[in-house]
Specification:
Blueprint: E1 3-14, H1 53-65, E2 69-70, E3 73-74, E4 77-80, E5 90-93, E6 100-101, E7 104-109, E8 112-125, E9 129-133, E10 136-140, E11 147-153, H2 160-176, E12 189-199, E13 209-214, H3 217-236, E14 244-249, E15 254-260, E16 268-271, E17 278-279, H4 282-290, H5 296-305, H6 311-318, H7 321-331, H8 337-355, H9 366-377, H10 383-396, H11 400-406, H12 415-428, H13 430-437, H14 444-454, H15 461-473
Parallel strand pairs: 13-14
Antiparallel strand pairs: 1-11, 1-12, 2-6, 3-17, 4-5, 4-16, 6-8, 7-8, 8-11, 9-10, 12-13, 14-15
Helix pairs in contact: 2-3, 5-6, 6-8, 7-8, 7-9, 8-10, 9-10, 12-14, 12-15, 14-15
Length: about 475
């Protein structure tokens, strides 16, 4: 029997706000534990929450970027559960009336364009960070109460590849939109993954298994693939898939049972009595819409249509917002987009990888790369010499023109110097000369190499080729 997997994701994204969702405490990743706390985020009796207006704006802008309908009236609810990461034993969230409804993410998966639909985006507060050590569990409430939004997809994906493409696109959109830095290592993007399988042709979905709190895209992909295989194996052996919450053991590459669910809604929600509903006017939504930035898909299209870059280059450059912004800064000083793209995808990415640096930490600034490209375009130096200059600046810093001068990298285009090297190459290599004159046009490349060798790479290749053809064809 053939089976079909159905996958939905609940993705939690920490927003870029200066303070927490319902109090004035700031959040600072890596700060001394339990130093950015107050009676509100510690859940002291009588402490009252106050809404963070910036978080509401960012959530709604995220919704606009994803094509959601912004709800003009939304309210707050309490999600009750007893666990140390939530001091007051409930989380302030949105149940039946969230800020954003619907929406979609369009993305290419294995060469095919797919559209994955959203159910909703709602605003809530984050939980504290638990650290489990031998014989004890430690709780850091610095993260408790930080602004968090949950993007809930419909069960519309059918493979790990679908989920990975969806998450990658979602992360890019949130970064470009200024909603979140989406750093998985800092817990800024995490997903709960819902997986079920059913026989192909069956209308009813299979029992859903939820894999909780995953912050690695690679692990999400592994967990989905394992869980699909596990559920199919259970069904084929005559068993029944149990609705439950599972974790993922990254060392073993397996999911494991954590707890079973009596039903799909095992939290007890009720309206939050300490917060007023959120009312958003059409004028406010229009203002936020006018402030939306260019998204990665729009940048890719612009790079191809306006700058003439291949689609592959445009995809690589826009995959990371910092890289794309750096490219934009170089383009302020040059029109040679392809040369900029080649240097970024080649020398820059290679050297950044070797040294474990980000593009912002490179000693090669956008202005210096533009200078190197200008020297190449003016035929002052060869492309190979330009790559050498780039690496010197990356490792040691410096000025492109000064490095070219100090190291004698400038190309030789003087006819008298080129003519001497060309005559020597022709006189010393009669066989390729005869082959060229007999019709083997490729033989001239050997002579070209001899001239470049004699000039120690300084001869202008275009000028050399022109001179050799003049001498051999004359």
């Amino acid at each position: 029997m053939k089976y079909e997997a159905t996958i939905g994701l609940e993705t939690h994204i920490m927003q870029k706000t200066n303070t927490k969702m319902f109090c004035a405490c700031k959040y600072e990743y890596g700060a001394e534990p339990n130093t950015h706390v107050c009676p509100v985020c510690l859940g002291y009796p009588g402490a009252l929450p106050v809404m963070n207006e910036k978080a509401i704006e960012l959530c709604c802008k995220a919704g606009l970027l994803l094509g959601c309908e912004i709800n003009p009236y939304s309210k707050w609810d309490r999600k009750n559960y007893f666990y140390p990461d939530m001091a007051k034993n409930y989380q302030i969230t949105q149940a039946d009336q969230p800020l954003c409804l619907g929406g979609q993410v369009a993305v290419e998966v294995d060469g095919e364009m797919k559209t994955f639909t959203l159910e909703r985006i709602h605003q809530e507060e984050n939980a504290a960070k638990n650290t489990h050590v031998a014989g004890a569990s430690l709780v850091d409430y610095n993260r408790a109460g930080t602004a968090l939004m949950e993007i809930v997809s419909n069960p519309c994906m059918h493979s790990a590849a679908d989920a990975l493409a969806y998450l990658t696109a979602l992360k890019q959109i949130m970064e470009y939109g200024g909603i979140s830095d989406c750093n998985p290592e800092k817990g800024q993007i995490r997903s709960d993954v819902n997986v079920s399988v059913r026989p192909v042709g069956q209308e009813k979905l299979g029992s859903k298994v939820e894999i909780k709190n995953m912050n690695s895209f690679a692990f999400i992909q592994q967990a989905i693939e394992y869980e699909i295989d596990r559920q199919i194996e259970v069904l084929e052996s005559g068993g029944k898939v149990v609705q439950e919450t599972r974790g993922f053991d990254s060392d073993r590459g397996e999911t494991f049972s954590q707890r079973t669910k009596e039903n799909a809604h095992d939290y007890r929600y009720f309206p939050e009595p300490d917060l007023m509903p959120v009312k958003i006017s059409a004028e406010q939504i229009g203002q936020w819409r006018s402030e939306l930035p260019e998204l990665p898909v729009q940048r890719r299209e612009r790079y191809v249509k306006e700058l003439g870059l291949p689609e592959y280059d445009a995809g690589v450059l826009t995959a990371d917002m910092a890289t794309s912004d750096w490219f934009e800064r170089v383009m302020v000083h040059t029109r040679n987009a392809k040369a900029v793209s080649n240097f970024i995808m080649g020398e820059m990415m290679r050297l950044l990888s070797e040294h474990g640096l980000s593009i912002a930490e490179s000693k090669v600034t956008p202005e210096k790369l533009a200078e190197i490209i200008a020297l190449i375009d003016a035929k002052t130096i060869s492309t190979g010499a330009g790559k050498q200059v780039f690496e010197i600046i990356f490792n040691e810093g410096g000025d492109p023109k000064q490095i070219v001068e100090e190291k004698g990298m400038a190309q030789v285009s003087d006819d008298s110097a080129l003519e001497g090297w060309a005559d020597e190459a022709i006189a010393s290599n009669p066989k390729p000369v005869e082959e060229y004159k007999a019709g083997n046009a490729a033989s001239i490349n050997f002579l070209m190499g001899q001239v470049m060798k004699a000039s120690r790479g300084k001869a202008n290749p275009g000028a050399v080729m022109q001179m050799l053809k003049q001498k051999l064809d004359g």
